[in-house]
Structure formats: structure tokens, C-alpha cells
Amino acid sequence: MNQAMNTIDPANLNDRLQSNSPPLILDPLPEEHFESRHLPGALNACVYEIEFINKMEGLVPDKSAEIVVYGESDQFEAATLAANLLAGNGWSRVSALQGGLEAWIDRGFAIEGDGASRESLNGAYEADPGKCHVRWIGRNLLNQHNGTVALQSARIELDDGRLAGGEAVLDMTAIVCEDIEDPNLAQVLIAHLGTGDFFLVDSFPTARFVLTNAAPIANARPGSPNYHVEGEFTLRGQTETLSFEALLGSNDESLALQAQFDFDRVRWNSKYGSGKIYEALGQHIVNDLISISFQLVAPLK
What we know:
Elements: E1 6-8, H1 10-17, E2 24-27, H2 31-36, E3 43-44, H3 52-59, E4 66-69, H4 78-88, E5 93-97, H5 100-106, E6 123-126, E7 133-139, E8 144-159, E9 162-177, H6 183-193, E10 206-216, E11 227-235, E12 238-250, E13 254-264, E14 289-299
């Protein structure tokens, strides 16, 4: 917490809420989080929205009113941000709940919301290819090219809300280069990528990844990878183990799995321009590593 900020501990706040002059309670987190769980009687105005102060002026027009703001815990700063914004815009009696919602719950005090009744996600969820993205970057010593590859199909499997399996199939006949403006030159590159020098597309038009293990990453923060993923990646008809870190998340409408990683194409017998295979390449060298980023989105309804 900001040292200059007034604070109140959960026990004192609980006592104050039973008094004849209780403070107003403000939850500054998004509405979906508020609906899941919040302090009894709390107001809600999301501090991440640019209309936060305007909304607060509608909710609490009396700027001399006592307000206690809380976030998820002291590890995060939503409560600090909200309290500072309120104080900077004229509210004169603002304090923050020490330890936030987690400390309140740990003390055994009551909460409201529908979070306790929400069931964990289970089963297989089919991705919507139109909402998914798979991107690539290939490099040599002085240059690079980038583009997309079409997703043919994908599914994400969950067990009690945890990543448990999945599969993705790429259409290797639908590789696109986005950085070469001349369409004829771009097609020259795509045609080369389709040959035996790289991906042997005529013989193997698809690539497939099958997830075999997913281990949660301890203490992962929102927006950071939260699983270490391992699986079998089949490219050019050859299957090798591939591992990377991924981020799994969901909202009320969709489930999403995303990642960014590099893989060594030479392990799948794509040897063109590789310094591991050929000597004295000079200007003809091509990096072994290809960068991949993907975002799989599966509707929940």
C-alpha cells in the first residue's frame, strides 16, 4: 500500500459496518469480478475504465463521505490507484482495506456474489478458426519475414478448469507472407517454403500438435504464462516432442489459449541454410529457429 494512504484492517471495518455511521465500501474491480464476490453492500466502479471518476461522482456525489476501497490483495494496486484518483479529485475521507478481499475472507467475514456457485469448466471445447491467429517469423542474418498460417481445427480440453489436453491442425498449404509488398516476390517465398527445403507441403499438407502434458506454473500472474505445455508436433510427416509456456484464460463467453515460442526446424529435417548441416554458408545462412505465436479461441456457448 502507499504509505501516505489511510488504511483500515478487516476487523475494524467489520465493526464499523455494524455501527450507526458505516463507511461506504467501494470495489474498484471489473463488474464480472464484482459479481463473482464482493464485500456486503459494496458499490462498484471499475478503476480501469476512463469513466471511473464520472461514475463515482454519480455514485457518491458527497465528496466528504467516508469511503473504504479494496482490491483483491495487497499484492496488487487497484485499490491504491482508486484511492489516489479519488483523493486527487476531491474526496477527502478515503482509506484502503488492509489485505483487500483476501484478508477479509481469511478473517471469516461474509461476502456476497455468485462465485461460489460457478462450476469449473470441463470437457473439450472446439476453437473457432475465424477467431484464432497463428503467426510465424523466419530470419536470416540480415533480414526476416513474417506472416500467418491457417488453422484448420483445434480443441482445448479441460478437467475441473485445468488444461488437460488438446490438439491443433495447421493447413500448411495456406501460409501467407505479410511483409513483402510485391505479391509476385511474396509468392516466390511461399513456394520455396512449400518445397523439401522447408516444409514439404505437397506430401504433408498439414501439421499437427497433440498436447500430452500441461503443468501449472506456480504463482503465475494474470497476463503471464500459467502452464508449461508439452506435446507431439508432427511436421513434414515427422513427430518430435515440443514444449513451451502458454497462457490459459476465459471469460463468460470464450476460452482462450495463447503462447509465443521458438522451435528448431532442423529437428523436423528442414535443413535449408542451416549452419548445423552445411559449412561455409556465408550470406546463404538461414536461422534454425522459427518464431511462432498463436491464440486459440473457443466459444463456451
